[in-house]
Amino acid sequence: MTVSRFHVAGMDCAAEEQLVRMALSDIDQINRIEVDLDQRDVLIDHTTDTDTIDTALQTLNLGAEFVDDTSEIGPAPDTRRERNALIVAFVINAGFFVGELTVGLISRSMGLIADALDMGADASVYALSLAAVGTAAARKKQLARTSGYLQIGLAALGLAEVLRRFFADNELPDPTSMIVMSVLALAGNIITLLMLHRVRSGEAHLQASWIFTANDIKVNGLVIAAAIGVTLTDSGIPDLIAGAVIFAVVANGARRILKISR
After folding, report:
1. Sign, CA torsion 85/121/258/43
2. Rounded to an integer, what is the distance from CA 208 to the centroid of its chain?
3. Does one domain contain both 26 and 114?
4. What is the pLDDT of residues 127-178, one digit of tens each?
5. pTM confidence score
6. Which of the 8 DSSP states describes residue 214?
7. CA dist., res. 200 & res. 78, Å (int)
C-alpha cells in the first residue's frame, strides 16, 4: 500500500476538488483520497501504480504533478459531516443560481447571468458527488455527461446572447444590482470554502491569499469590476466582456466533466 502526493495547481475551489475525486473514482485500487485545498495537494492511498493515477488526473487539465510517495496521511474525515457539508454547499450554490439568474434577467446583466450559470455548474458538481455514493459507475457517468452537455449548451446560448447585445442592444444593465448580488454571491462562495475546509481539516480558517485566488472569487470580482466599468463608461461593454469570460469558464468546466464521464 502506497500513499502518493500529487500537486494540482489548477484546483482552485471545492467544486474542482470534487472533479478530482470523480476522476479517480473509477480506479478500484484507490482506498482513500485526502485533499488539501490550501496547498492544492492530493494524497492518495492506493495499491496501483502512480502512472494510472496520473493519467486519470491529466484528463482534467488542472496541472496535476506527482510529487512523492509518503507513508503519512491524516485521519479519515467524518463522512456524515462531509456529506452534510456537500448538501449545504449544493443548496448555497443552487440558491445563488436561481437568485443571480433572476436578478440578472431583471437588471439585464450578462455578467450576473453568466455568474449564475457558474454557480449552477458548481451546484451540479456537488450534486454529482452526492449522487455518486452507491451509484453504479455507468449511471454516474451518464449523469455527468448530461450535466456537462447541459452546461456547454447554456454557455453557448449565453455567448450568443452576448454577441447579440454587443451588436444590437444598447440598453445598460443596472450596476447597483450587479454589485449587490455579486457581493452576496462572494459571501456565499467564501462560506462554502470555509465550511468544507473546516469539515476536512478541523480548522476554521483558510489562508486569505488562497481564498482570493480561487476561481469562484475571481468570477465574483469580475462582475463587480464590470459593474464599476458600466458606471464609469456609461456603456454595457464591460458587462458583456465579463459575461463572455465567465461563460467561457463554465464551458471549460463542462469540458472537464465530459472528459471524466467517458
Report:
1. negative
2. 18
3. no
4. 877 776 555 566 667 777 888 898 899 999 999 999 999 998 778 999 999 9
5. 0.76
6. S
7. 8
Are both 101 and 212 inside the same structural domain? Answer: yes
Q: What is the pLDDT of residues 83-122, one digit of tens each?
A: 888 888 899 999 999 999 999 999 999 999 999 999 998 8
User: Are the C-beta atoms of residues 36 and 80 closer than 8 Å to each other?
Assistant: no
Same domain? 133 vs 18: no
The three grid cell numbers given for residue 159, joined into one nine-digit string: 455567448
Same domain, 160 and 236: yes
Number of domains into which the chain is organized: 2
The H-or-E segment that residue 4 falls in is strand 2-8
Which has the closest alpha carbon to 38: 182, 166, 202?
A: 202
Same domain for 249 and 121: yes
8 A C-beta contact, residue 174 and residue 108: yes
Q: What is the DSSP letter of 57?
A: H
Domain residue limits at 49: 2-70
Neighbours of 108 (CB within 10 A): 18
Do 40 and 113 belong to one domain? no
Integer CA distances (angstroms), 10 to 20, 48, 161, 181, 197, in order: 11, 24, 29, 26, 17
CATH number for the domain spanning 19: value is 3.30.70.100
The DSSP letter of residue 47 is: S
133 lies in the same domain as 173: yes
Residue whose entry in the numeric block shows the C-alpha cell 471549460: 252
- Which residues are CB-contacts of 128 (< 8 A; sequence separation ≥ 6)? 18, 22, 140, 143, 144, 147, 257
